[in-house]
Amino acid sequence: MRKAAAALTTLLLIAPALLSAGPVTLEESWSKSAWGSVEALAWSPDGEGLAAGTGTGSLFLFGGSGSGLWTRGLGSTVTSVAWIDSLIVASTSSGLVRAYSRSGEWAWSLQLPAPVSDLAAGPGTIAAAAGSELVILDSSGNVVGRVGLNGTVSHVALVGNGSVASVGSDVLLVGDNVSRIAKLDSPVTCLSVSRSGLLAAGSTAGMVAVVREEDVLLLKLSSGAIEDLGWGPTDLLAVGSEDGVVRVVTPSGEEVWSDSIGSAVTEVEWAPDGSLLAVGGLGGELVVVTPTGAEVLSATLGEAVGSLAWSPDSSALAVGTWSVRVLVKVNPTVSISEVRVSRYGSNVTVGISVSPSLPEPVRVRVSLLEGGEELASVDAALSGTGGSLAIPLNAPLRPGHHILTLRASVGGEEVASQVVEAEVLPPPPESASLSVLGFGSDSLSVRAELAPAPDPRWPLPAELVVTESGRVLLEERWNISSGISERNVQLELEPGVHELSIELVYDGEALADAEARVWVYSATLDVNSSTGPGKVTLTGVVGLDPPPSPHLPVEAQVQVSELGETLTTIPITITGRIEPFRAELGLEKGTHRLTVTLIVAGSPAASRELVVEVPGSTVGAVMKVLLAALAGTGLAAFALRSRASRIEELKVRALEVALDRGGRVTPAELASALGISPRLAKKVLEALKDEGALRRCEI
């Protein structure tokens, strides 16, 4: 029961059109959509009709060749379908039991008071499990018996002159009297009666009861629920459980074989002649084996298998998922076993399998299609058990996602098909180069040049890899959509000299590489100050570790600011471990808080805060006069100017503006009046307000 494996690098198996494997093979004869999950299937006694009931309340009748004969709506989920004489009888979850003729005419209908969970049909008799009742009908729909049971009837089967029903964990024999013939450890999940009268029942806790006349054998076969079981014509019992295991045991409980299908078993069904056992799974698995467990077919249908039914002559298997498929026995069979699409879409290879072995060569044509259009084809002679064929492509497949169909035909008749999903990558460039444009303390700028340039519709999904001494520092996806592309990446490097290797990698191969020596500096800044009337002199040194090479000096700046405004900027060239600097500033008397910042490669590297006291200047006296004027009751216009300090001058001019406006001014008004930025105007007004010079300014 091993599933067929497909060794596809970039492909996903969607659904095989032809199902085949092993010495006995099955081929899909036809498939029809059912507009919902197929919950019940039943072949007509002559095998010429197939009835199917769905979870959406539809009842279909198909001809033996797959032709849709008719469809009827029953209003709610079809729970069971059976044939009695020439009538099709269906039950629903709403309690409806209805019969149709083969031509689709309504024969009779019965509405029961509870959902019908199961139907069992025999010659001229139908038993329906409806709520807590077991209702017996004749072929005309007349109720000929009605037995109330103590609990909900979950399953029913006909045996001899009576019925077997399950209620909870009890298995009851219902005839003239009701008697319990077996009790399981948990609620009953399934029932089956053999041709020889053997009874089997499965439970939710993995127990199976085998009843022969008055003897009851209890078997613990699984840790999960028994999902389905069925007797074969030779009294072998197939048991499928929730854990995905299928077991075949004898009536005495002896295991013949067991295997797993990969997901919970939903259905088991013996062919009437006992030659094959079909197993369906919740994950869409369909497996067909011989009574000894030899695998005949293994396929994944993509949807849970909800029902299985063999034709009366065992020549065809009906499978219900969200469609109805009918598989028929054929010999020999050709199938597509494997498809490979190259990563760049330049070629496609197809594996063709033949089972059983061909006695003489056969000409086969294999076509590759997409969206119904044939892209390429190849003709070849198959012999033995098949082989591999290469399909030449006039032009490579475009990059991107593809859903491809492979079809194999012999003598113009399709014998196999396969649908595959493939992701095709853009082809690598013929040439590529990588260069380093620059670097900062925490970033690296690179340029890639590709020829020919990638198609912008399908960018090249490359990777940029940065390493140092074999250690990977960065791996970053880079979708390149043009012939020349630049990129900045962030790196976290310790201070020092770093020897970096940069690679552009695509599809596991390096397209281009570059080397870069990067200096990451640890900066120091020492500052001293001396003051005189109206001025400050700053002296200090800056340092970088590691020290720059004399041949590769570092251009930097020392910036002095106050209140966020730059007072002066001193360019400096650092050629060794330390470099001195000097700056002179004209400042008004008073306390000044200065910020001295070292800027390297456009970014602050170190800074210091200084508080200096500047001796008196003429501007101080003027400020006293203004303060005295504002402290009085009258307001006058003062025309004062001072150029010793820009900030102090702005304070004086701000007071003039305030006096002109009656002692009230906003930052926007001050900025407009003095031709300065709103930000600087706000700082000047804040300073004046802190000093008590203005009380009515609006900041």
SSE arrangement:
Blueprint: E1 11-13, E2 25-33, E3 38-43, E4 49-54, E5 58-63, E6 68-73, E7 78-84, E8 87-92, E9 96-100, E10 106-111, E11 116-122, E12 125-130, E13 133-138, E14 143-148, E15 153-159, E16 162-167, E17 170-174, E18 178-183, E19 188-193, E20 199-203, E21 207-212, E22 215-220, E23 226-231, E24 237-241, E25 245-249, E26 255-260, E27 265-270, E28 277-281, E29 285-289, E30 295-300, E31 307-310, E32 316-320, E33 323-330, E34 333-341, E35 347-370, E36 373-392, E37 400-410, E38 413-424, E39 431-439, E40 443-451, E41 460-468, E42 471-480, E43 484-490, E44 496-506, E45 509-520, E46 522-532, E47 535-545, E48 554-562, E49 565-574, E50 578-586, E51 590-600, E52 603-614, H1 618-631, H2 646-660, H3 667-674, H4 678-690
Antiparallel strand pairs: 1-38, 2-33, 3-4, 4-5, 5-6, 7-8, 8-9, 9-10, 11-12, 12-13, 13-14, 15-16, 16-17, 17-18, 19-20, 20-21, 21-22, 23-24, 24-25, 25-26, 27-28, 28-29, 29-30, 31-32, 32-33, 34-35, 35-36, 35-37, 37-38, 39-40, 40-43, 41-42, 41-44, 44-45, 46-47, 47-50, 48-49, 48-51, 51-52
Helix pairs in contact: 1-2, 2-4, 3-4
